[in-house]
Amino acid sequence: MFTYLLALVPVLLFFSNPITQLFSSSPPRIHRLPRPQLNEDLLALESPLNETSCPSHPYTVHIFSRAPLVLYIENFLSADERTHLLEISEPLFAPSTVTHDAGETTQRDVSVRDSEVAVVPRTGPVRCVEARARALQGWRPEVWVERLRTQRYRAGGHYAHHFDWSTGRGGWGRVSSFMVWVDDGSGTSSSKSTGSGEKKEGEKLEGGGTEFPLLRTPEDPKWCRFVECSESKFEPGEERGNGVVFKALPGNAVYWENFMADGTGRGYEETWHAGLPVKKGVKVGLNIWSWGRIE
């Protein structure tokens, strides 16, 4: 019997050794290519003179999920910043397009994406929003904020389920996303000029939430401030399901990481999301994407 036990020792050592992971079906590591050349037309490259003049702007962060990392941010934009974004976007809005061939060509397809988009100029307030987005991510090396884009959705407008990332080719890609809500037709920033100096509020938004069907449904009813909740969603003892819809609350934002930080370059399936159809009113959102080195 002792002889048999001795014979088992090398077998147990083999199967407990991390080297055996080489023989497993684990995803391969990233084959990292040299960094592509940076394009200032697409990226909001930093200037050392930009951020020192930005006013202090407190906001509150709530952790919604840890894997993937999803943060809900209250008061990410100030009322003045929201008004400014609407003013500079208005003359620039153009129909949104989609791509089906890795970015080679774009086309208008309202069945997938029905909205208007504006790449906003890098004014002083816009640069401060860029700086805030960089700071929240910890000033990560080799990660750059893309040029900011506002999106306007009128009644019927939507964006079908999609990923913000396509591939992690060469170890580079769109590593993170913010969905920031600028206007829902109810606040000061949505007021319209009547020509007589008076302000008239727009129609109150209905619909237009941002849906993540693969994220876990939150357990704590406190989240109902920020997400759509049914009466049965928080029944005691019930197992949590999947799916969450974040309300379009002006000034607030959702931030998420697109890729796993495990060296494989794999994207999170849970970041599959959609801009649900606007039923009434107008929604304006702000996309803040960051491009760079996948960890």
Task: Provide a descriptive summary of the structure in words.
The protein has three helices and 18 strands. It has 295 residues and is α+β, with helices and mostly antiparallel strands. The chain has a single domain, classed as q2cbj1_9rhob like domain (Jelly Rolls, Sandwich). The strands form four sheets. Strands 1, 2, 3, 5, 6, 7, 9, 15 and 18 form a nine-stranded antiparallel β-sheet that branches. A hairpin with a 2-residue loop joins strand 1 and strand 2.
Which descriptors apply to this entry?
alpha+beta; Jelly Rolls; five-stranded antiparallel sheet
Q: How far do the termini sit from each other?
A: 50 Å
Number of distinct beta strands: 18
Can you name the CATH architecture? Sandwich
Q: Give the integer mean of the pLDDT values.
A: 85
The number of helical elements comes to: 3
Unreliable spans are: 8-23, 188-200
Overall number of domains:
1
Structural class assignment? alpha+beta
Helical percentage? 10-25%
**Can you say what the CATH homologous superfamily is?**
q2cbj1_9rhob like domain
Largest sheet: 9 strands, antiparallel
Domain Prolyl 4-hydroxylase alpha subunit: 68-291
Cofactor: L-ascorbate
InterPro entries: P4HA-like, Pro_4_hyd_alph
Biased composition (Low complexity): 186-196
